[in-house]
Design brief:
The protein has 343 residues and is of the alpha+beta class. It binds 3,4-dihydroxyphenylalanine (DAH). 3,4-dihydroxyphenylalanine binds next to β8 and β9.
């Protein structure tokens, strides 16, 4: 009896010290302790040697030990992989696997791609330019000479090591780069990131995205501008959307116009986004100023053109009802996941 108590104590200690960390070890454990030639079987056999008056107590002890081993084995089941040599033939390999969550495109990429593809269908080619620009391409060439008050419309980040460089404030700088390198006819769409020294809030950010368009050829008229942008809006927002053009001012276009569309958030009933007017501004546009053409040696008597620039965040806000600009750069997966599946 004494030796049986000691044995059980030692076995318990041994089990406690055993590290079982994979399916093989679980199986080893089973064979060693619970198998037909296992320790539990053999120790049960020792009942024979116990004196009759101690049999009851010994039986109780052995039963407890059996439960201890079985419980321990049970607790290892989660470690055991489902695939063992025995059941490998029973697995239905044609069953679908556990799904791997797929990533999603950023909503701004989705909207930029849509904008670009609509204009590509109209024959516009993509052009890109640098985000770090010089004064000439961002301002001078676009008819914004130094000291021009309209420069204040776009609060600029200058590069501290060399203030003749800056972060472009609009993608109109790409117009300058294109006209520098191409002769008319020109038909380009220029997507890209732009920077302005603004305090970050729900309505303003120090960087955002624009898509610029430029069309130069003989006999290009304001009617072409209107028709092109009307087509764009219908493709982007559907046939029911209404547009209106308001006279405006940009140094690089004359005449200039801003285009509004009927508010899609409230269906023009009046909301915060349209400031209860039923209309939201989505882009600036106009006929390319003759001075801009002449800056690049393009004969303004022979050629005319139109240009426009729109904010991708604004289009995205209207399309997907995103009302805080900060969401675009916070990388909150709960926000981004909502756009899964969009291309
Ligand atoms: N560059 C202007 C801005 O950032 C937008 C713009 C207005 C671009 C009129 C144009 C245009 O090409 O013709 O506010």
């Amino acid at each position: 009896m004494e030796s049986l108590i000691l044995k059980i104590q030692n076995y318990k200690q041994e089990i406690d010290a055993t590290i079982v960390s994979d399916a093989n070890a679980v199986e080893e454990f089973r064979i060693k302790w619970l198998g037909t030639k296992g320790i539990l079987k053999s120790i049960m056999g020792e009942m024979r040697n116990v004196a009759a008056e101690q049999k009851k107590e010994a039986g109780q002890m052995l039963n407890d030990f059996k439960l201890f081993v079985e419980e321990r084995f049970e607790s290892y089941q989660s470690i055991k992989s489902n695939i063992t040599q025995e059941n490998i033939n029973q697995i239905d390999w044609s069953l679908p696997g556990s799904p791997i969550p797929i990533g999603s495109r950023h909503p701004l990429s989705v909207v930029r791609n849509k904008i670009v593809s609509i204009f590509q269908r109209l024959g516009f080619a993509i052009a890109e330019g640098p985000e770090i620009e010089d004064d000439w391409h961002n301002f001078g060439a676009m008819n914004l000479p130094e000291d021009h008050p309209a420069r204040d419309m776009q609060d600029t980040f200058y590069i501290s090591q060399n203030p003749s460089w800056l972060l472009r404030t609009h993608t109109s700088s790409v117009q300058a780069r294109v006209m520098e390198n191409q002769k008319p006819p020109i038909r380009v769409i220029c997507p890209g990131r732009v920077y302005r020294n603004e305090t970050i809030s729900a309505r303003a950010h120090c960087f955002f995205h624009q898509v610029e368009g430029l069309y130069i050829d003989e006999n290009v008229s304001f009617a072409d501008l209107k028709q092109t942008l009307y087509f764009f809006v219908q493709e982007m927002f559907g046939k029911d959307v209404k547009v209106r053009f308001r006279p405006s001012y940009f140094p690089f276009t004359e005449p200039s116009a801003e285009m509004d569309i009927s508010c899609l958030i409230c269906e023009s009933k009046g909301c915060n986004v349209c400031k209860h007017t039923g209309w939201v501004e989505i882009l600036g546009s106009g006929m390319v100023h003759p001075k801009v053409l002449e800056n690049f040696g393009i004969d303004s008597n022979k050629y005319t053109g139109f240009a426009f620039g729109m904010g991708v965040e604004r289009i995205c806000q209207l399309k997907y009802q995103v009302n805080d600009l900060r969401l675009y750069s916070q990388n909150d997966v709960r926000f981004l996941k909502q756009f899964t599946g969009l291309v």
